[in-house]
From TrEMBL, chain A:
<dbReference type="InterPro" id="IPR037165">
    <property type="entry name" value="AldOxase/xan_DH_Mopterin-bd_sf"/>
</dbReference>
<dbReference type="GO" id="GO:0005506">
    <property type="term" value="F:iron ion binding"/>
</dbReference>
<dbReference type="InterPro" id="IPR000674">
    <property type="entry name" value="Ald_Oxase/Xan_DH_a/b"/>
</dbReference>
<dbReference type="Pfam" id="PF20256">
    <property type="entry name" value="MoCoBD_2"/>
</dbReference>
<protein>
    <submittedName>
        <fullName>Carbon monoxide dehydrogenase</fullName>
    </submittedName>
</protein>
<dbReference type="InterPro" id="IPR046867">
    <property type="entry name" value="AldOxase/xan_DH_MoCoBD2"/>
</dbReference>
<feature type="domain" description="Aldehyde oxidase/xanthine dehydrogenase a/b hammerhead">
    <location>
        <begin position="20"/>
        <end position="135"/>
    </location>
</feature>
<dbReference type="Pfam" id="PF02738">
    <property type="entry name" value="MoCoBD_1"/>
</dbReference>
<dbReference type="GO" id="GO:0016491">
    <property type="term" value="F:oxidoreductase activity"/>
</dbReference>
TrEMBL record, chain B:
<dbReference type="InterPro" id="IPR016169">
    <property type="entry name" value="FAD-bd_PCMH_sub2"/>
</dbReference>
<dbReference type="GO" id="GO:0071949">
    <property type="term" value="F:FAD binding"/>
</dbReference>
<dbReference type="InterPro" id="IPR002346">
    <property type="entry name" value="Mopterin_DH_FAD-bd"/>
</dbReference>
<dbReference type="InterPro" id="IPR036318">
    <property type="entry name" value="FAD-bd_PCMH-like_sf"/>
</dbReference>
<feature type="domain" description="FAD-binding PCMH-type">
    <location>
        <begin position="1"/>
        <end position="177"/>
    </location>
</feature>
<dbReference type="InterPro" id="IPR016167">
    <property type="entry name" value="FAD-bd_PCMH_sub1"/>
</dbReference>
<protein>
    <submittedName>
        <fullName>Carbon monoxide dehydrogenase medium subunit</fullName>
    </submittedName>
</protein>
<keyword id="KW-0274">FAD</keyword>
<dbReference type="Pfam" id="PF00941">
    <property type="entry name" value="FAD_binding_5"/>
</dbReference>
Length: 809, 305
């Protein structure tokens, strides 16, 4: 038997190439192309009163300067609003180059094309844009107060207001024996992929066709958008993603202004044009996420069981809404986690501010939702003097209640129905892993040494693998090698490896014989994109189905060659053979030859397929009526609803009594994404997610001043954790298969990051004895919270007093 | 993030370098390790017309130790100074500070003299030079002068290096008698610029009683700040000292400012905590110093890569 690949910790086949520097990223392409640079707004809100380019005209190597006035056709229209929604009553998008107003620092105003980027930046420096500066709207509270408006025609700065309700939550809370209200605050962070955005376009004037290379999470999306904006037939535009150095959400937004402008200029100039984003541009002109203010009201019984949950969210969407209101929708639906909320009401307002747009970043609204729910769970436990895990357990949806319908609509517009999950099992595993029940003894020992420690817990459920569909194409070449294509893109997740694992098992070929291509519209033109932890679920299943089609065809053809019933055949190590008599076999490559009758021979293998040398049955045409030449298969996977993964994290922290430094002593993860295709890759995903979670909880924030200037727009002051700040991560897996798809898998890409802010708040609060309501938290802030706590301005946790005695949590 | 055009000079010895600097005057910048200059060029925060690259000046790639102290040439990398055992034996504060300078990859390229010439008050080496009362050697075509540390640092990112001058060496003198040192700091992330850092030097007598206690502060003032805290500790030993008194004394002279990583008040708190930690360790180390011990003269030199 061929070794089973599905489930094995197969080493990533892409790594050798990437680690020795043989990756080809966007900026590695297009030697000799023109390069673009942008003059971007230095103001958060202003009217453009004049643009003077004369100073730039004598820069050597200048090719072209474009302002809004130069844009033609649909390029001059606002960028698309990608995901409309009935509640998004006041959606607004930017122009590719600012038309009259700029609405955030960093908005593109002028595009310069020159023979290289150095000269393009020289020219940018010599262009004078005159602005009439207007007072900006910065901060969620200011946006909500709406003393000033970002867009004059958007009252209250409110892009969208959406309420979802199940039951009568306010009434349930009013009638509950216990009630609490929490005010919570989460700051902005951002995806910050190692490679920023970038576009490189080649126009072929003779062919009237365009090839666009872009560092994107959706090549099919960019292709369609570029074709539409440039008024080209779809078949005249191809979009290819080279190696992509990380996405984490920001590259699912499309088309970015540059993704339209660069191809447009390439066609206009009849010359290759490239733009590679630099880090400062990424900070001020790409996208951020996370910023929300939340008010959580809960009513609960004496066991801590939720009777009513009422959440109001003020969501900062930045200056425009090209990606719709996906983020707050996810927050408001995924907030529920593994719990039954009783009656539930969630009300969000998505508000404009004069800041960089807000679009999904790994976790996509879930970290904020989990923060709200888990802060509430901890508050309930504290209020009742109960163990925090006990309160969670009484609220869990039980395994026998699956599938569980929350009665809400999810981000894909479909019902929020959990397909499976074992939440009590996950919590038990986590408590065992972290040693929850032994922690008080540890705390007592630490206290005796003058150390202050705390433990936190947080749970989440993540809808993964959202539709509408993905497809896969599998082809066996006459050499026996198998080539696989799927349309969605890769940003380093290991798709080449896991998809090859699936195909190797389905077809019975060695994994080394399988090559996978992603994100190239020349190879597979139908796709949605890589986001929402969906690649393995969507493309993985589609590729499995396609491989099954290929296998069926291979067995049929081989059956004819071997004069055997296809049902008696199996494929092992690339050989189709009769079960039980391995002597009777034909290589899969030979089957591929047989599948494609030829007129012309070019080598020994093809000779066997030519009409005049091969055996022929003259009663039939060379290709049967309902058949196709070639040993290949294509299929699609389109699920009825998303599949729901879940996980639970625990962290033990130590806070320095003098310096308020926060040290991570242990970080434990229990994770359930159904069957694991490759445990090593899943753990890698969890590690990366936790690293970003640590960043979002303890280090990263977007520091806007009152003028709308992002004052920490560099890696010197925007603090991403280094390897030295990321703890060792201990992981345990549960495997509750999804009943929704053939492989029984769920997504894993975002898992690690989702509960991080919540779990750190839980642990720091436990160490300090007063509530933590705002994340991220840095030592300076913790120092001031302690002072306010000491001054009686912050209430103690109820367990605070017992804390000192070390008896309770 | 691409620099504007500049003319690149690559002298191969000191005389050529000084010629080049004399020629380009105020339009020139010296490139050594480039750890601060290159980002500033790329962000167009600096736009010198000329760049004089001294990486070919192998004669300046030295760490020379004598019983009186350590001389570090302009092309000695942080990592080399940090690893130099002879230098460590005579001026242990060098390694104590250097291990806190950013990350190993930065220390492999960045030069100690370059970081002093950059005069960043958040730089560990500025505090080390200040606490030790060291000096800088500045050369220009035809002449050389030595500037004491108190005259060298003029303001944040501003040193008294004149047009046409090259900082060719720094001298870190050995502290006399039974003196112990320590360098501690707190940064947001490992290797970041510190929110606050303290370098301390404590001298004790034969009865291990404190006779002198001084501390240099990082990231708290425009130029390196050295405070004499002897009054709070004089006559005490490591066991009887009331460290907090020293922190309180220091606090009266500190005027920290706030930024996005630390409020002024938090910085003051850190200064107090770190003053205590640095002085305590320095005092403990002082007790271990053999006042009659001799340190051999050694010289470590290497060629420029």
């Amino acid at each position: 038997m061929t070794t089973k690949m599905f489930g094995a910790p197969v080493q990533r086949t892409e790594d050798l190439r990437l680690l020795v520097g043989n990756g080809r990223y966007l900026d590695d392409l297009g030697e000799g192309s023109y390069e673009a640079a942008f003059v971007r707004s230095p103001h958060a809100r202003a009217r453009i009163t004049g643009i003077d380019v004369t100073g730039a005209l004598d820069v050597d190597g200048l090719i072209a300067i474009y302002t809004y006035e130069d844009l033609t056709g649909r390029v001059a229209e606002p960028l698309p609003l990608l995901i409309p929604h009935p509640a998004l009553t006041h959606g607004r998008t930017a122009y590719p180059l600012a038309k009259e107003f700029v609405n955030h620092v960093g908005e593109a105003v002028v595009m310069v094309v020159a023979t290289d980027r150095y000269l393009a930046e020289d020219a940018c420096e010599r262009i004078t844009v005159e602005y009439e500066a207007l007072p900006p709207v910065v901060g969620i509270e200011n946006a909500h107060r709406a003393d000033r408006l970002v867009h004059d025609d958007v009252p209250g700065n409110c892009a969208a207001h959406l309420v979802q309700e199940v039951g009568d939550a306010p009434a349930a809370i009013a009638a509950a024996p216990n009630r609490l209200e929490l005010k919570l605050d989460i700051e902005r962070s951002a995806c910050m992929p190692m490679e920023g955005r970038g576009v490189y376009a080649r126009w072929d004037a003779a062919d009237e066709s365009l090839r666009v290379y872009t560092s994107t999470q959706t090549s099919t999306g960019v292709r369609a958008a570029v074709a539409a904006k440039l008024d080209l037939p779809l078949d005249r535009v191809e979009c290819v993603t080279p190696d992509v150095g990380g996405g984490f959400g920001v590259k699912i937004v499309h088309p970015w202004p540059e993704e339209i402008l660069i191809p447009w200029a390439a066609r206009l100039l009849d010359h290759e044009v490239k733009w590679t984003e630099d880090r400062r541009e990424h900070f001020i002109s790409a996208a951020h996420e996370r910023g929300q203010l939340q008010t959580v009201r809960v009513g609960f019984d004496d066991d801590g069981r939720l009777l009513g949950l009422d959440v109001e969210i003020l969501h900062d969407n930045g200056a425009y809404t090209p990606y719709g209101i996906i983020v707050p929708i996810i927050t408001s639906t995924q907030l529920l986690g593994p719990y039954k909320p009783g009656a539930y009401r969630v009300d969000f307002r998505s508000l404009y501010t004069n800041t960089v747009i807000v679009t999904p970043y790994r976790g996509a609204g879930r970290p904020q939702g989990v923060f709200a729910m888990e802060r509430a769970m901890d508050a309930i436990a504290d209020h009742l003097g109960k163990d925090r895990t006990e309160v969670r357990a009484v609220n869990f949806i039980q395994p026998d209640e699956m599938p569980y319908d929350h009665g809400l609509l999810f981000q894909d517009g479909r019902p929020l129905i959990y397909d499976s999950g074992d939440f009590p099992g996950s919590l038990d595993a986590l408590k065992k892993l972290v040693g929850w029940d032994e922690f008080e003894a540890y705390r007592a020992r630490a206290r005796a040494e003058g150390r202050r420690v705390g433990i936190g817990v947080a749970c989440y459920v993540e809808g993964t693998g959202v539709g509408p569909y993905e497809g896969g194409h599998v082809q066996v070449e006459t050499t026996g090698k198998v080539v696989v294509a799927t349309g969605l893109t890769s940003q380093g997740q290991g798709h080449q490896t896991v998809f090859a694992q699936i195909v190797a098992d389905e077809l019975g070929v060695p994994i080394e014989d399988v090559t996978v291509t992603t994100g190239d519209t020349r190879r597979f033109p139908y796709a949605v994109g890589t986001f929402a932890s969906r690649a393995a679920v969507m493309s993985g299943n589609a590729i499995a189905l396609a491989a099954r089609n290929v296998k069926a065809k291979a067995l049929r053809i081989a059956g004819e060659a071997l004069e055997a019933d296809p049902r008696d055949l199996e494929i092992v190590d690339g050989q189709v053979r009769v079960k039980g008599s391995p002597g009777a076999s034909v290589a899969l490559g030979t089957v591929a030859v047989l599948s494609n009758p030829l007129r012309y021979a070019f080598d020994e293998a093809s000779k066997a397929a030519t009409q005049l040398t091969g055996k022929a049955d003259f009663s039939k045409p060379p290709v049967a009526e309902d058949d196709e030449p070639g040993l290949e298969g294509r299929d699609y996977y389109s699920p009825p609803t998303a599949t729901f993964a879940n996980g639970m994290h625990a962290v033990i922290v130590e806070t320095d009594p003098d310096t308020a430094e926060i040290r991570i002593l242990r970080y434990c993860v229990v994770h359930d994404c159904g069957h694991l295709i490759n445990p090593m890759i899943v753990e890698g995903q969890v590690h990366g997610g936790v690293a970003q979670g640590v960043g979002g909880a303890l280090y990263e924030r977007m520091e806007y001043d009152e003028h709308g200037q992002l004052v920490n727009a560099s890696f010197m002051d925007f603090l991403m954790p280094y390897a030295s700040e990321v703890p060792k991560i201990e992981i345990d897996h549960l495997e509750t298969p999804s009943p929704l798809n053939p492989l029984g898998i769920k997504g894993a890409g975002e898992a690690g990051v989702i509960p991080a802010a919540a779990v750190f708040a839980s642990a720091i609060e436990d160490a300090e004895g007063f509530p933590i309501t705002r994340m991220p938290i840095q030592p300076s802030e913790l120092f001031h919270l302690r002072k306010r706590f000491a001054a009686g301005e912050i209430p103690a946790l109820r367990r605070g007093a017992d804390h000192a005695a070390g008896t309770h949590r | 993030m691409k620099p504007p055009a500049f003319r690149y000079h690559a002298p191969t010895d000191l005389a050529e370098a000084l010629d080049a600097l004399a020629e380009v005057g105020h339009d020139g910048k010296v490139l050594a390790g480039g750890q601060s200059l290159i980002p500033m060029l790329n962000m167009r925060l600096a736009a010198p017309a000329h760049l004089v690259d001294i990486n070919g000046l192998s004669e300046l790639a030295y760490v020379r130790t004598d019983p009186g102290g350590v001389a570090v040439g302009a092309l000695a990398r942080h990592a080399e100074v940090e690893a130099d055992e002879a230098a460590h034996a005579v001026v242990p504060l060098l390694r104590q500070g250097l291990r806190l300078v950013a990350h190993p990859v930065i220390r492999n390229r960045g030069t100690t003299v370059g970081s002093l010439a950059h005069a960043d008050p958040s730089g560990e080496m500025t505090a080390v030079l200040a606490l030790l009362g060291g000096s800088m050697t500045l050369a220009r075509k035809g002449s050389t002068r030595t500037v004491a540390v108190e005259d060298f640092f003029v303001g944040p990112l501003e040193a008294s290096i004149e047009e046409g001058e090259l900082a060719v060496a720094a001298y870190f003198p050995r502290l006399p008698g039974r003196t112990g040192t320590e360098f501690v700091e707190i940064a947001r992330r490992h290797g970041d610029y510190a929110m606050c850092g303290v370098a301390a030097a404590v001298t004790v007598d034969d009865d291990l009683r404190i006779v002198s206690a001084r501390a240099a502060y990082l990231s708290l003032s425009p130029v390196p700040l050295v405070l004499d805290l002897t009054d709070a500790l004089i006559g005490r030993t490591a066991d009887t000292a009331v460290w907090q008194d020293a922190a309180t004394l220091a606090a009266g002279s500190l005027e920290p400012e706030g930024d996005i990583h630390a409020t002024a008040e938090y910085r003051a708190q850190l200064a107090g905590v770190l003053t205590v930690r640095a002085l305590r360790t320095a005092t403990e180390r002082a007790a271990l110093v053999d006042p009659n011990g001799t340190t051999g003269t050694t010289s470590t030199e290497r060629s420029a890569r």
